[in-house]
Amino acid sequence: MKKILAIAILLITTQNLISQTAKELNTKGIELAKKGKIDKAFSIFEKAIKLYPDSPGPYTNRGNVYRMRKEYELAIKDYTKSLKLDPENLNVLYAKANTYLDAGNFEMAISDYSEIIDIKPSFSDIYFQRAYAKIRLEKYEEAKIDLESQLKISSKDFKSLTNLINIKKELKLFEEALADYEKIVSEFPNQPNLHILYNNWASLYKEIKKPEEALVKINLALKLKKNYDIGHFNRAGIYLKLNDQKKACKDFKKAIKLNLEKNEHFEVDEEYEQLKKLCE
């Protein structure tokens, strides 16, 4: 599964700054960053670090800028320095963990998330984040436990519920996954991406060789979003399993027309090659 996580600047103002001047510089840099003037903010943080090297806040916020620039090693270095000066700041530790995640260093991300859990297990989204890192390492059993822990804290957490379904599919817990789809669509009837859920639900039915049930769910997906490229491609594959080549090719051509191949979530697979050969 692919990760779809947004990067946000954690504009952290550290309380234990050694002087008012250092605090003023840090605050000024934060305000510039909020206005989108990232390069100017970076210069202010650098100035604060040179003048007040024992102040943790500027290191944190320069690290945030490095992270935005995808200079992950430099970001982690700054977060580490900030934590040496202010070791109890869990927000900085969380930023460092998320940066490891961004960089694909999932083991180190898990280590930092675990440290936060040991100190404050109620920290927002912490079990979800650690679960995501474990998913990337294909540690599905461990990820399942983390998501279940996250749902004990926030039972209506949509992203945890959907990822838990995906894990159950990986673990071949198909009946549980099907029941979870039923539950989640009833609890979140106005969720903006409900068409994706129905598409995934259809894919599960297709995987367990129940194409008639799959067709019902993919039709609901396409009812919610008419020009859903992946939905049309999925329905083409379902029609193929139902031996309806005419409808399969109609949906496949529609998906291609909707730029399926340019969709970042699409990957060419055996079914695509089969449909392409059949429908040319």
UniProtKB/TrEMBL annotation:
<keyword id="KW-0802">TPR repeat</keyword>
<feature type="repeat" description="TPR">
    <location>
        <begin position="56"/>
        <end position="89"/>
    </location>
</feature>
<feature type="repeat" description="TPR">
    <location>
        <begin position="22"/>
        <end position="55"/>
    </location>
</feature>
<dbReference type="Pfam" id="PF13181">
    <property type="entry name" value="TPR_8"/>
</dbReference>
<dbReference type="InterPro" id="IPR050498">
    <property type="entry name" value="Ycf3"/>
</dbReference>
<protein>
    <submittedName>
        <fullName>Tetratricopeptide repeat protein</fullName>
    </submittedName>
</protein>
<dbReference type="InterPro" id="IPR019734">
    <property type="entry name" value="TPR_rpt"/>
</dbReference>
<feature type="repeat" description="TPR">
    <location>
        <begin position="90"/>
        <end position="123"/>
    </location>
</feature>
<dbReference type="InterPro" id="IPR011990">
    <property type="entry name" value="TPR-like_helical_dom_sf"/>
</dbReference>
<keyword id="KW-0677">Repeat</keyword>
<keyword id="KW-0175">Coiled coil</keyword>
<feature type="coiled-coil region">
    <location>
        <begin position="130"/>
        <end position="184"/>
    </location>
</feature>
<dbReference type="Pfam" id="PF00515">
    <property type="entry name" value="TPR_1"/>
</dbReference>
